[in-house]
Specification:
The protein has 391 residues and is mostly helical. It contains 17 helices and 3 strands. Helix 6 packs parallel to helix 7 and helix 13 runs parallel beside helix 16. The longest helix is centred in the middle third of the chain and has 27 residues. The radius of gyration is 22 Å and the shape is globular. Bound molecules: carboxymethyl coenzyme *A. The site of carboxymethyl coenzyme *A has 20 residues, from loops.
Length: 391
């Protein structure tokens, strides 16, 4: 009944009001709760930004200590949940392992599932923030057949994640402070991006009053796609391929322009930005310095820069206003840090988690309306059923 607007891809539909993140795609501006992303990336920490997104304000010293301490007390996974990982094949991509284990949190932590009980919502918030890095590290350990490490809660969230990912049970692990700082900054860049595909998924799942764990698991699945968070893996695979074929950037750009075999310049283009993605600018600025410190693959970074230069001066990209997005430069940094390509999207999920939680909670702070889009029906009119013998 009534008037239905046809809007494939939700190009012009705002299903919600939100006070969390501001984007001006024409000007290339991104702010969390009013704070410019550049300032947060330079001066804040991922845990502080998580607090800001979820609760709306930067924390006082006491609030930050309390928040950090509460997260610290929840980093362990239930022992049975640890065994859940055994059921996956070793060559599984870590993203479905991650989303499955996050969904399984609703089976293991049943005392924090009620979306209408603020204390339970708070507990599931803390549990997710604390346990996602542990689950992420275990999804990596599973893929390389190495033993899981218990969290060491004397370390920060990011240090703990690095140790659980790259450390071994019987050996001391020295966290490289440069790597920890760079990863922390990259997580800040990913922490929220208003109504993107995965966040909209979290909201839509949550709009049925489904619990926070299960809603976030839905978001992780949406993030995996190569048009969304999966693009960071796809970018590095693209750079690796170009390198393996002799580094001919011009030839690659030609293929993209002719849409040969559907080849896209991965890490380019964005639904909202019609200008340089400010996150890409920050990642690019840091990539150079980080690669020099960590001794990464300069050639991949050079190919990426050459691709950018070729694209930004080419009519195809200029006319369509396609610029590098956040995924374009992050992969070369993750590789320099030692992460295998398949872990890149897991790192994106770790970063995006506070944004998903903030949106889910914002939605529940208002009268809940189930997400239920309409359609334009294009099928048959009424027709009579035919017995199978007559078809
Ligand atoms: N390479 C080549 N052509 C492109 C690209 C690209 N990366 N992106 C867009 N185009 C072309 C597209 O083919 C279309 O051309 P035409 O008008 O001739 O059909 C035009 O530009 C408009 O693109 P669109 O696909 O209609 O735009 P959209 O807003 O629906 O899609 C996008 C946005 C991000 C899905 C798309 O730009 C894309 O597929 N980019 C590559 C994947 C990627 O890097 N994704 C990461 C997005 S940012 C962070 C995140 O979410 O993870």
């Amino acid at each position: 009944t009534g008037y239905v607007t046809y809007d494939p891809g939700f190009m012009n539909t705002a299903p919600t009001k939100s006070a969390i993140t501001y984007i001006d795609g024409e000007a290339g501006i991104l702010r969390y709760r009013g704070y410019p992303i550049e300032q947060l990336a330079d001066s804040s920490t991922f845990i502080e930004v998580s607090y800001l997104l979820i609760y709306g304000e930067l924390p006082s010293k006491a609030q930050l200590e309390d928040f950090t301490d509460r997260i610290r007390r929840h980093t362990l996974l239930h022992e049975d949940l640890k065994r859940f990982f055994d059921g996956f094949p070793r060559n599984a991509h870590p993203m479905p392992v991650l989303s499955s284990a996050v969904n399984a949190l609703s089976a293991y932590y049943q005392d924090s599932l009620d979306p209408r009980d603020p204390e339970q919502v708070e507990l599931s918030t803390i549990r997710l923030l604390a346990k996602l890095p542990t689950i992420a590290a275990y999804s990596y350990k599973k893929s390389v057949g190495q033993p899981f490490l218990y969290p060491d809660n004397s370390l920060s969230l990011v240090e703990n994640f690095l140790r659980m990912t790259f450390g071994f049970p019987a050996e001391p692990y020295e966290v490289d402070p440069e790597v920890a700082a760079a990863l922390d900054m990259l997580l800040i860049l990913h922490a929220d991006h208003e109504q993107n595909c995965s966040t909209s998924t979290v909201r839509l799942v949550g709009s049925s009053d489904a619990n926070l764990f299960t809603s976030v698991s839905g978001g992780i699945n949406a993030l995996w796609g190569p048009l969304h968070g999966g693009a960071n893996q796809a970018v590095l695979e693209m750079l690796d391929d170009i390198k393996a074929q002799g580094g001919d950037v011009k030839e690659f750009i030609r293929k993209v322009k002719n849409k040969e075999d559907g080849v896209k310049l991965m890490g380019f283009g964005h639904r909202v930005y019609r200008n340089y993605d400010p996150r890409a600018a920050i990642a690019k600025k840091h990539a150079d310095a980080i690669l020099r410190k960590l001794g990464g693959d300069d050639q991949l970074f050079e190919i990426a820069q050459a691709l950018e230069e070729a694209a930004l001066t080419d009519d195809y990209f200029v006319e369509r206003r396609l610029y590098p997005n956040v995924d374009f430069y992050t992969g070369v940094i993750y590789r320099a840090m030692g992460f295998p390509t398949r872990m890149f999207t897991v790192l994106f999920a770790m970063g995006r988690l506070p944004g998903w939680i903030a949106h889910w909670r914002e939605m529940h702070s208002e009268p809940l309306k189930i997400g239920r889009p309409r359609q334009i029906y294009t099928g048959y009119g009424a027709r009579d059923y035919r017995e199978i013998a007559n078809r």
